[in-house]
Amino acid sequence: MTDDVERGERLARNLGGGKSVALHDLYGDAVPPPGAALIISDVSALTSESVRRLREALSVTRGPGTPFLALIHGNLGRGEIQATALGATRVMPAATASAMLLNAVATLTNSKPDPRSAANWRHQVQEARSVFVSLFRADQAPPAAVVETGADLVNQAVREAKVRDWLKIVASFDDVTHRHCLSVAGIAAEFARALGLKEADSRYLVKGALLHDIGKAKIPLAILNKPAPLTPAERSEMDRHPTLGHAMLLTGDYDALTLAVVRSHHEYLDGSGYPDGLRGQQIPDLVRLITICDIFAALIEARPYKAPKSPREAYAILSQMNAKLDADLVRAFGAVAVACDTPFRASA
Fold first, then answer.
1. How do 39-43 and 90-93 pair as beta strands?
2. pLDDT tens digits, residue range 224-239?
């Protein structure tokens, strides 16, 4: 059900098209067909008129227990309230990736997505990048629900393929900060697998990885993309990104632990980190995990002013940072370093 037929047709194609997908113009004269297995609404603005028309259409086509997925444009919080009032089974941002949409549909219809479709992992890397680019804005905190979508995409892509394949594709992206955050996210997803974390905990870890450098959206591009080592003054400005990111997310719907990841991912157990000089137990486990992934990703990434380390070399450096990092977690990270090894190094 859509208020934009052209957009609705694109959505239908993303879902595989065919006779199994019927398009209903919310402002047209036709009556929606009864007996739908799943209803998706894609309405750009839930005004009083569009809500009335949706309610009428739902009364015709929706049977008892029929799942209803509402795609929301604009303010997600307000849209979620309106969609819930209409009886939506699930609500997602309209800007979400097609791979996530396919998975949501598969869940609601109890079917299994075809791994060869738009949900395959290669497309998901690009989809995750699109979601991440939409998050990385200096003018506002990213919507928490969209970050959740990005985390799901990363987790699924790494689960269906291999982390070294993820890194190989991400390494081709031209923006240094986007490349780094997506690399950290993929490594975090693999770390979650190595630790045997539950799906919800894995998503939480990857979400923190996606957001950890969000404060760099407020750093001048001349510093952020400088093709040479930073001067002391530029380094001082760059080192503000944890506090800038933390301040950004304070205006959003983020929990204290995610805020801690953004503010404290450069803290070390011996108190030598920044911005607050935290020590030992002052640093939560989630932050410790992200810090290891962050350092490892930075070491294996190519920069204009440095060659990439091999994953083995990077892990050796991590292992020597005894007083700064959690030694037990570094040992557990060894399996991730192995998973990232030779094929990625050869393509760097």
1. unpaired
2. 888 888 999 999 999 9
- Residue 320 CB: number of other CB atoms within 10 A? 10
> 251 to each of 141, 154, 255, how far by Cα in Å?
7, 25, 11
Rounded (10°) angle between helices 176-195 and 121-135: 120
Confidence of residue 143 (pLDDT cuts 50, 70, 90): confident
Does the pTM surpass 0.70? The reply is no
Both tokens assigned to 252:
């959003």
Residue 32 structure tokens:
């929606």
Six token digits for residue 112:
């299994």
Q: Please give the torsion angle defined by the CA atoms of residues 233, 236, 241 and 247, in that order, rounded to the nearest 10 degrees.
A: -110
The DSSP annotation for 268-335 comes to -TBS--SSS--BGGGS-HHHHHHHHHHHHHHHHS-BTTBPPPPHHHHHHHHHT-TTTS-HHHHHHHHH
Beta bridge partners, 303, equal 306
The whole-angstrom distance between residue 272's C-alpha and the CA centroid of its chain comes to 30
Q: Which residue has the tokens 């050796």?
A: 316
Helix H or strand E segment including 121: helix 121-135
CA distance readout (Å), 143 to 123, 250, 251: 23, 12, 10
Give the rounded distance of the alpha carbon of 180 from its chain centre: 13
Better-scored residue on pLDDT, 252 or 2 = 2
**pLDDT grade for 123, boundaries at 50, 70 and 90:** low
